[in-house]
């Protein structure tokens, strides 16, 4: 678990993929960005409100894939109408949940998910 300053879950992942590149020429984005995408499971983005209170703004699952803008994510919870709510989407990689005896579909959608998300990338 770690924390860093970013304006969104996606930006946090881009930052994690960029900061190691500042170390010098011995490492490049072709190695770092896929490593970040494959190593992070979930990003919780909290914002600082004007009054100084922090609140969760979004929770996103990392797919393990890399797109043009960096590691790809699936939003699991987002602010809608001022409240944090489930998007109805499931994390694409569910093997770790299954090993822990947890079905994300029950938590996120109120139903059993079967093998949702256990296709490509489901082994993370």
What does this structure look like?
- This protein is 26% helix and 29% strand.
- With 124 residues, the chain is of the alpha+beta class.
- The chain has a 4-stranded antiparallel β-sheet.
- The radius of gyration is 16 Å and the shape is flat.
- The two termini are 17 Å apart.
- The C terminus is likely disordered.
Topology:
Layout (H helix, E strand, L loop, with lengths): L8 H10 L10 H11 L2 E7 L5 E14 L2 E11 L2 E4 L8 H5 L4 H6 L15
Antiparallel strand pairs: 1-2, 2-3, 3-4
Helix pairs in contact: 1-2
Helix content: 25-40%
Could you give the count of β-strands? Answer: 4
Which secondary-structure class do the elements indicate?
Answer: alpha+beta
Percent strand equals: 25-35%
Straight-line N-to-C gap: 17 Å
Main-sheet strand order equals: 1-2-3-4
Overall outline: flat
Rg from alpha-carbon coordinates: 16 Å
User: How many DSSP helices?
Assistant: 4
Q: Main β-sheet, in a few words?
A: 4 strands, antiparallel
Low-pLDDT segments: 115-124
Mean pLDDT equals 86
Q: What is the H-and-E element order? A: HHEEEEHH
């Amino acid at each position: 678990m770690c924390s860093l300053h970013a304006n969104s879950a996606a930006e946090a992942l881009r930052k994690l993929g960029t900061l190691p590149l500042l170390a010098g020429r011995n490492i490049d984005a072709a190695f770092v960005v896929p490593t970040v995408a494959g190593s992070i499971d979930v990003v919780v983005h909290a914002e600082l409100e004007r009054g100084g209170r922090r609140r969760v703004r979004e929770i996103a699952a990392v797919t393990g894939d890399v797109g043009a803008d960096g590691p790809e994510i699936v939003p699991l919870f987002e602010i809608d109408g001022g409240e944090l709510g489930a998007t109805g989407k499931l994390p694409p990689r569910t093997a770790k949940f299954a090993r822990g005896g947890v079905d994300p579909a029950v938590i996120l959608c109120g139903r059993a998910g079967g093998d949702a998300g256990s296709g490509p990338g489901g082994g993370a």
